[in-house]
Predict the 3D structure of the following.
Amino acid sequence: MTTTTDGGRTAATVEFEHVTKIYGAAAAKRGSPGAVNDLSLTVPAGRICILVGPSGCGKTTTLKMVNRLIEPTSGRILLDGVDAATRDVTELRRGIGYVIQQTGLFPHQTIGDNVATVPRLLGWPKRRQRDRAEELLALVGLDPATYAGRYPAQLSGGERQRVGVARALAADPPILLMDEPFGAVDPIVRERLQNELLRIQEQLARTILFVTHDIDEAIKMGDVVAVFRTGGVVEQFAPPAEILAAPASPFVARFVGADRGLKRLSLMRVNDVPLEPAVTARVGDDAGDARRRVQADPFRYLLLLDADDHPLGWIDQDHVPVSGPLHEELIDSTSPLLDRRTTLKDALSMLLDDAVQAGVVVDRKGVLRGLVTIDAVMAVMRQTAVDTGFETELEVDAAP
Amino acid sequence: MIGFLQRYGSELADGLVNHVVLTAIAVGVGFALALVLTLLIVRWRRLETPIVAVTGTLYTIPSLALFALLVPITGLSLTSAEIGLVSYTLLILVRNMLAGLDGVPADIVEAADGMGQTRFQRLIRVELPLAVPLIIAGLRIATVTTIGLVMVTAVIGEGGLGQVLLRGFNLQHWDLVYGALVMMILLAIAADLLLVGTGRLLTPWQRRTATR
């Protein structure tokens, strides 16, 4: 049942089975629509599942039903196949990490004590509590020697949020619930915290349910994304690339935004595009031969390499001498170097800025691998896009 | 000055000790009772209105009248004095304790619940420590008020320094009257400072903020 990941640590599946939440007993009897309606979805173990949607769509309610801060009106939530409702509520919660936007750090406790909250509840020996707190502070990038003895009020917002994440991870829970964890920090800090969470998740591979209203955050962070519509209905549950390429409904298309094509670019990497060969020559090679080869090619630039095949720059075909050796002074322009992990968004942005509209892709040692062209990017985008049939409606919506 | 101390020193010291004991019992018992009442309110919220109403009513009874009322029941005794003194502390203490507990931010309560603290653990480890500043503020008012009221219990034969003052008044020994008054004022100031210090010791997190 339980999926073992690296280091023998575990993650759990989270299954929602026809879960409905209607606030107020009277409303439930009347059969009023609930905050969450007949929700069924399965979050695979060890993945980040993003719950995203406009405010009032029931995403936070859904999250809080997992650790039973809110009890469902009907339906079941299974954690690794066990109905959460059958478990002792405090014991259940101690096994689920919980991070909230306002951090909820205890102002009267030091950072070290805050992080050790759940280990202390579980009755770990003092020494182990302290070691664990220090280990986790280091994991989230806070030096334990500096921070363990401080109080929350002495930290910046971003630091407090890191402590919140460390505290949630303290007892090594298989499931982590995060309610808009980075919603209250500025965009630069948010970006850094997001990257750190992804790095930590790569190491720990927990099952993470993550609530946000920010579609860009959802696309960046999610292995799978559940797009909620007001009224607690999931419109689409799919990996981010699929949501962008093939929105399941006009609502999803509208929610991900008219720029979803551009967002897809940020999910795809140079690796996904077939590279094209370049006409190349090394410094010192015969110019006459290079000139003949570049003039025979439809692309009008020669890429000059050094002796180790590191790209140096472009020479326009008209500027390649008829004879003599090639040298660096002939270079007309240079292009930024891309590696295979560069996102297509960044790559395309560089291409648009560049005189020679071809991206030079190099491997880790800086050796030329090939070229990325705008045409090749477009071709890949076209292949992976699906005709949803509501493009027209989108255009109407987008008109001023 | 030396003559004054030789004449009245032991009398004033006895009065002071007695005053401190009367105050300590009153505030101590009042604190315990108020804590119980507050926890009852936290557990059953609908108790708030009746409890606040009763303690509020007790607070409005003039002190002299209250002591007079008690004498037929409990006699000219320490019990009578303490019943009166304790009832006056209740309103202030219950109100401040409640305000302190209710003032704990919602996100902190939610985090405590979400991490699996029981209701009791949340109260002991989170809510009460965070209510300390307001509880101390309540104790300061209650203590200083009680020190003043202890003097009134002289009418039923208690009174600590109040008894000394009354004697000085009857004998027309004005220096004794002033001596008792000054002692009482010093006691009030000392008690207040002691509570402020205790509060600071109990809330280290409040001092160490904004160092960056």
Q: What stands out?
A: Chain B has one domain: 2-204.
